[in-house]
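Subject: Sanity check before I submit

Could someone independently write out the structure tokens for this chain? I want to compare against mine line by line before I put it in a report. The sequence has 488 residues.
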Amino acid sequence: MAVKEELEQPLKEERAGWAFPIPECGRSDWSQYHGTLTQYVGPLPPCTDDPIEKKPLEDDDDYDPMEEAPPLTIPKEGTSQGASSSSSTRASYLRGASKLKKNPDNPDQRTRVKPFSDKSREEIAIPGKECHPANGILGRLLKDNFPGMVKLPGDNHKEEPASTWRHYKAKVDGNGGSFAQRVKDEFWQYYKCEDGYDREAEYVMENACRKLVLDMHYEVRIQSVINYHFENNKVKLVKGAARAKTLTKEEYMQVPPRWVVNEGVCWEKMVDKWCTDEWKAKHEERQLQRACMIRIPHHQGSRNLKSYGNAVVFEEASSAISEYVAYALSHKAKASVVMPYNDSDPAEAYTSLTSYANMQQYKEVFQQTHGADSDPTIQPLDPEVVMVAGEGKKHGRFMIGGCLLSMASVPTLPQIKARRTRSSPAIRSRPTPMQAQVAEERRLMDERLKEALAEKERQMEAKFAERMHTYLAVNFYHIIIAKREVFH
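---
Independent answer below. Compare away.
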């Protein structure tokens, strides 16, 4: 601790005006600031304590196992904060894989991927090898192969930043192929498709790339806000706080991301979009909608539902949990701390009222279809029941378990209606968040009314018992007096 105090004081005196926190911790935690202290007060003696144990934050939406924490570096006074500093190492959080691991030359040593739905796949690691999420690698490749400004085919289109997967397909690279094909070719240098699933893997990759490109453009603005406040204000913002903040055009232009640092015109076009009144109005509207969310949607993090179910382990469980149970538990708690499923748990045990209403509606339709004694908690998800209970695939989403279902195995709503009979379950409308909230409030009111009636009944019974006790005591007294008079 003496070494720490000796080295801490010069740094405090030299950088007194900075909002840089000096941690009060042990030598092991203090060693992560070695680079910063070396820059200002000279080298530190080697740390003999145990190294910092880096544990992944399980189920954290912002955690990526491919990302290693960059060293904490603080720019010197007088240095520029423009594009050159944006490409250097930052201490602020960088979302996504920070670097790509070396891909194995032998295809048999690559992680295998096996699609199991239209949007999800399972990574099967080689024994003894590290398994990285496929979407993390794919997202990094999309950034490394960002096409910049692209003009879509047609006279009505003009050159614009590549903000969709369609732009990647439209831009031709130096080898005569599209940027989209280049991303796919580089992806298969890190992974190997399971035999017999080539067509399904291609479909899953197309769906994943569409979403990842949109997410990439959504996250880049938030990352720019984080970088700007760290580089200029020496303040680390978490993602939630950065999401609510905006910058001016001049401030955005100081912190371009790595993957558009050489695309000055492209970055300026992206920034111009965020500075329009239309975008700001829509941003505020979405913020209000997000603020209206009463509870957390789910606890899966970056996992799909199947991976979440595989991560849930109970000592008393003899086999893997069902898809329905995995969906239920993912709306209770993280996989590492969630308790076993209990069918009698009320709505307040779940963090999403809408998901609880969806589960109850699916269960009712499931029992109407397969019999009152059927149990959905031990059966796989029935795609037709999901369609009937949720009024089809609204807005491109199934009511529950969407990442586990493939459209090839799910009948369309017109097909289901064509073969319906009088005994078939009625097609139900999907519960909305407002309906779920109203139903929960009504249920709570009913419970409070029942408790009030039960308390009233207990009070009446207690008063009746007290009166009967008084009545019997008085009568017994009169009987005793009467008997005494008879004997006398």
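---
OP: Matches mine. For the report I'm noting this point. Residues 14-90 have pLDDT under 50 and may be disordered.
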